[in-house]
Every structure is written in C-alpha cells, then in structure tokens.
Amino acid sequence: MTVVGLGSPFGDDRLGWCVAEKLAARVPPNVARILLRDRPGPALLDEIAGRRASILIDAADTGASPGTISCLSAADVGSYRGACSSHDLRLGESLALGQALGILPPLLHLYLVAIDPSQAVEPDAPLTPPVAAAACDLTGRLAALLPAWRA
Question: What is the DSSP string of 30-61?
Fold first, then answer.
C-alpha cells in the first residue's frame, strides 16, 4: 500500500502533504508507505506501478466550495483532467498514461480537496480554515481505511 500526498509549499496546495504527514503519525509503517511529492508529473507512476493499492491525495480547483472532498476510483482516474494543476505533466494526464500502459494499481483512489487557487500563492502559509478542516476529516477517513486495504 502506497499513499502519496501531492502538493507544493504554497498555501492550500500543501493539503496533500499535510494529510500525508498526519497519516504518517497515525498509521504504522507496516500498514502503508507514505510519501510526499512536489509536482511529480509522470514520475508519480514509478511510485505506484506494481503496487496492489495506492491512494493519491491532492488539492485542486474542482469548482466546488473550498474544503469539499471528492474521491475518484481506479475506473475514473484516467479521465481526470484537473482544470488547475501546478504539476508538471498534469496529474490527470499522468494517470491516463499509467492507465494506457496498464501499470496503475488495481485498487487506486484519488482524493481531491477543493481549493481556491488564489489561496495557494504564499509559500508556507497555513491552510485556510475550510481546507484545514477537510485535511483533518480526510486524515481520519484514511486512517480507518488503510488497515482494511492492507488486508
């Protein structure tokens, strides 16, 4: 099991990192390998290829209210085209490539937390209140889910 928190050091875009860091403090290392990556582009595929299960966590301008959590399953991730991504080759394009190559884990979920991109501009700024609340909520959900996925 691999969990990848995606992001950058800019404000609410740090959401994936924050959730991954909180999970690392709550989940034993034998349950999940937890990584933080800054705009990995297609290198993300190296982190998840060959795994039975992976969870990706990212902040995105989804059009929903900031802090809204959505989840895409393995069947949906290849069609995700993230409208506002700071990542090199966009996350959706990288996942579509992985899907076309047949290297995505069979059990894969992409958790997206809606942000307002104008709040993701200051380096090391704290998460805004709705995004911070979503980070806590998502951390709790994933901490409960990971042991079941490992089994």
Answer: TT-EEEEEES-GGGHHHHHTT-SEEEEEEEE-
Q: 2-7 and 53-60 as β-strands: parallel, antiparallel, unpaired?
A: parallel
Residue 1: which residues within 8 A CB-CB, separation 6 or more? 31, 32, 33, 51, 52, 53, 54, 55, 146, 149, 150
d(Cα 9, Cα 17) in Å, to the nearest integer?
A: 9
Q: Which listed CATH number (2.170.270.10, 3.30.230.10, 3.40.50.1450, 2.130.10.10) goes with 2-150?
A: 3.40.50.1450
- Residue-level pLDDT at 79: 60
Q: Is the pLDDT of residue 58 over 80?
A: yes
